[in-house]
Fold:
Amino acid sequence: MTQEKQDTAVNPLEGFLRMERIPHIWCPGCGIGTVVTSFAEALKKEQLDLDKVAVVSGIGCTGRVAGYVKLDSFHTTHGRAIPFATGLKLANPEMKVVVFSGDGDISGIGGNHFIHAARRNMDITVICVNNFNYAMTGGQVAPTTPMEANTSTSPYGNFEYSFSLPTLAEAAGATYIARWTALHFRRVTKSIREALNHKGFSFVEVITPCVTLYARRNRLGDGLNLLRYYYDKSEIVHNADTRTLDITYQGKLVVGKFVQKEKPTFLDAMNTHLGNVLGDDYQLYGRLNDDRD
Amino acid sequence: MRTVKADPKGVLTGSHYLDGDYALAEGALAAGCRFFGGYPITPSTETAERFSERIPYVGGVFIQMEDELASIISLIGAVWGGKKAMTVTSGPGFSLMMENIGLAAMMEIPLVIANVQRGGPSTGLPTLVGQQDMMQARWGSHGDYAIIALCPDSPQECFDLTIKAFNLSETYRCPVFVMADECVGHMHEKVVIPPADQLDIVERKWYSGPKDKYMPYKNDADGIPFLVKAGDGYRFHTTGLTHDERGYPVINAEAQDICVRHLCDKINNNADKIIELEEEDIDGADVVVISYGITSRVAFRAVQLARKEGIKVGRLRLITAWPFCEKRIAELAPKIKAFVVPEINYGQMVREVERSSAGQTKVVSVPHCGGWVHNPLDILAAIKESVK
Structure:
């Protein structure tokens, strides 16, 4: 590369990232950055007004996404990104609100919020980066850790049953559900685009390698190897019965778009119902955010 | 600080017969609160019920969240979405909210939490009165920060102080607590709600400079940073981590020093402006009875009885519990024989009185573990004992 080229080299995500905060904290080989790139691609392709997109994260490695994206971005408390996003969306319904967080954050400490936001069909998108462990704190067992996998708090192998997140999401009422691995870059991007356009609770799970902890402890090789391994082990089954999506240790990964259906969102249901019951007295909510004008 | 007249849509002008819980909801609506994220808990539930009934006619959102952790943080989201927001709870729910009260303090979020106190600890006395969360209100979340807490002694004050709470929260960009109690919450009394044009409401301190220059934690001349609404193009970041003016995480002792001092000092340095007390016959008093909430009404009876017996008793009612009126206590301490502090707990705010008195006078605690108000005769006995 010539000196001149170096000077003008621009990160393709420059307008989307807080460049002053780069380099990021993620380990080499981590899959989170890939998912962020998919997300950026999705926003670009959808030509969304980035002023109207917010990212809310909880705590953990994926929780740091909010800190790097050049959007209205909120790094909240562990497990509470979804109810934060609920408040934000309801206060300012014109926004696209995206929760970007990890498996422990969303299905462990925040599991209750996950099922209730799905139940309400809250009009938000949840992107869950699933690396099968609590990585930020040093690789502890998570609700998503497959049986037998070794983690720092299951040093003799995990003996707890794990969550299949798409199963949980559908049972709770989510209206868009997809799962991919990070190496399905274009498919992740497409699913995020669909999720952003979906009216209602949309959920995209992305299986990613945690190189430093999960992979090393289980001797699964480096990031690229594991990324490739997950990809090769995956089988695309669109519209698969979500009860058949359990993940076993280094076993087959069923991926695809499982659910996409129409159902009134929380706000639509509220406006329709209260409008019907209260008639003209009802103050229709959410068409305009009129607090400041 | 810019004040405007209340939005008439939320103001139920007139003379009403309401309980304190309902009055809390009416105060919130009058103050411009248009988002309520709640979770039912006795004895505060009626506030959520009232808000859910009224808000469809006013324009806004009531959502019953799945737990108190969700309700408090939904408020923080809603404030960033541009709304004024409130929730209500009681002891166990207040405990669950603590972590995100810390987030609200850290993110400098104006919001209001009413705690209709019942007896604790744990599930304690769900239907019976307590004032046992006063220290928790001040210190409940981890780390150093400051908040404001107000104590209504009547349904009328539940209305008035909720408006005041919103105004203070917007002025100082911090969570404000309305520390009611079961007796005041369930007591029905006359509540007069004035016309909207007689209610002064503090507007959010909106930023109006160039969009790319906005910094969510850059102090204005008054020491309080500006707020914006998400979706307006500022593309800002905020975090519960220790942060700089831009809201970016900075994990070191220097940034922590600036951050924590700011969170505490913006309240402490303005304590004189914030604190509201009700005083009666303090000059020349031998004893001053300090109380708050329902206990101040019970203590009033004891004060009357003591005066009949010729004792010179003054009354000091903490309308503002936090920040604590330490200057005023320090000023009075050398002039009197004793402070008498009845409260429905095993001795909480009395510690502040002791600290502020700094040994200059006797401080007598009149504890009550909750479940009922004091017998005024017990307070009277303490007053008499204190002047011996």
The domain at 15-281 of chain A is CATH 3.40.50.970 (Rossmann fold). The beta strands of chain A are 53-57, 72-75, 96-102, 125-130, 176-181, 202-207, 234-236, 253-260. Residues 32-46 of chain A form the longest helix (15 residues).
